[in-house]
């Protein structure tokens, strides 16, 4: 899913969410010829009826008003804040990104495609009635809500952004048709301060449909992958989703300026590959919608990470040791006056980790975090701790 107009989602020159990260990603996708391995399509911006699947009518009206006149942004709706400054055209750009994710969901549900990717999406912090965390409309929630509207009975949402996927969890907190899984830095040390293991969904039929892994600050490749494989495969095998929606924020990377994990591009790529394998194994007809998310090392990390994601969705994997095309490196310097990376990962491939079945270390903070999640959520799903 791509439309040049997504770069209009622009909070201004001093904001960390620089839309150049989207343009550079698409140019790197083209430099590798991946746009010839997939159907590159746009979609209509999400209309009011679609936005209201998740967002309150008064909030959409407030976004429209701030979009038309940023000086009248209403901070009661999270608009005009340091995180979410109002800008002209905000509604149109946000609705377009949402429309691309909804279009991706419709394509996989209707069988137009088995997999779809919208790396411009993954704006997972937006709430039903407020902007938050650089996110205006929650395209991930809207895509899931559209799947439910089309008849899906089981949708799994997996979020590996460094920040908790709080907006998506909130949207489906009491809906047993949606399983949300989020691996993120511990809420004690990072925005939004939610995503504790004890957050497991509303009491009743939805209890056990929210799963949170709160990772210690400083977690690196081996711990991140250990946590992922200790939690995600069993849950997907039990839930048997009809569609898997994944969010791949690149801000887990050790170079990201806004967080405190120490994950490499190699590990991010390993999780992307794992998601493809899990979709093929556990999801009806292999339906997979992959989204972007956070990521504020906008030259060194984001374009490479999401180009790997596009390649993996397309089944045209870019080997880790591949050199970055010189034409793209020249483009990066022309656009940003920054030197571009020379190869497609950080040189840590193959990444290894210790399987959960190999034993629990009670003194290891990572193992403590994983066990806390399994104890809180797994029994509610009929799984062994």
TrEMBL record:
Keywords from UniProt, A to Z, are: Acetoin catabolism
Q: Its GO biological process terms? A: acetoin catabolic process; epigenetic regulation of gene expression
Q: Which residues form the Histone deacetylase domain?
A: 15-312
Pathway given for this chain reads: Ketone degradation; acetoin degradation
Cite a single Pfam family from the UniProt record: Hist_deacetyl
| UniProt keyword Transferase present | no
The family database entries (Gene3D superfamilies) matched by this protein are listed as: Histone deacetylase domain (3.40.800.20)
Q: Which domain of life is it from?
A: Bacteria
- Could you state a single Gene Ontology molecular function term? histone deacetylase activity
Q: Does the keyword Cell membrane apply?
A: no
Q: To which protein family does this belong? A: Belongs to the histone deacetylase family.
Question: What is this protein's name?
Answer: Acetoin utilization protein AcuC
Which lineage? Bacteria, Bacillati, Actinomycetota, Actinomycetes, Kitasatosporales
């Amino acid at each position: 899913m791509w439309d040049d107009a997504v770069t209009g989602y622009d909070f201004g020159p001093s904001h960390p969410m620089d839309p150049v990260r989207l343009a550079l990603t698409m140019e790197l996708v083209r430099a590798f010829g991946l746009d010839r391995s997939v159907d590159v399509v746009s979609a209509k911006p999400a209309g009011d009826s679609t936005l209201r699947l998740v967002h309150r009518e008064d909030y959409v009206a407030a976004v429209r008003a701030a979009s038309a006149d940023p000086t009248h942004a209403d901070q009661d709706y999270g608009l005009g804040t340091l995180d979410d400054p109002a800008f002209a055209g905000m509604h149109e750009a946000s609705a377009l990104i949402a429309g691309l994710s909804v279009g991706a969901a419709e394509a996989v549900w209707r069988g137009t495609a088995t997999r779809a990717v919208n790396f411009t999406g993954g704006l997972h912090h937006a709430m039903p009635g407020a902007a938050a965390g650089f996110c205006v409309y929650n395209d991930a929630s809207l895509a899931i809500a559209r799947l439910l509207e089309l008849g899906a009975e089981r949708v799994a949402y997996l979020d590996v952004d460094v920040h908790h996927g709080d907006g998506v969890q909130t949207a489906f907190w009491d809906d047993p048709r949606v399983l949300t899984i989020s691996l993120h830095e511990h809420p004690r040390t990072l925005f939004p301060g939610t995503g504790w293991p004890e957050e497991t969904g509303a009491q009743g039929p939805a209890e056990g449909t929210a799963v949170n892994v709160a990772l210690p600050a400083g977690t690196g490749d081996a711990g991140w992958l250990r946590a992922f494989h200790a939690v995600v495969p069993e849950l997907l095998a039990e839930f048997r989703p009809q569609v898997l929606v994944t969010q791949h924020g690149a801000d887990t990377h050790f170079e990201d300026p806004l967080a405190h994990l120490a994950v490499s591009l190699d590990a991010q790529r390993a999780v992307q590959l794992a998601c493809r394998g899990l979709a093929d194994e556990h999801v009806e007809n292999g339906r997979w919608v992959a989204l972007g998310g956070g990521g504020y090392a906008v030259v060194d990390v984001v374009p490479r990470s999401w180009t790997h994601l596009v390649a993996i969705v397309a089944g045209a994997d870019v080997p880790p040791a591949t050199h970055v095309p010189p034409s793209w490196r020249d483009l990066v310097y022309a656009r940003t006056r920054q030197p571009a990376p020379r190869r497609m990962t950080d040189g840590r491939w193959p990444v290894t980790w210790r399987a959960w079945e190999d034993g629990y270390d009670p003194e290891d903070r990572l193992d403590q975090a994983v066990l806390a999640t399994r104890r809180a959520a797994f029994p509610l799903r009929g799984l062994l701790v």
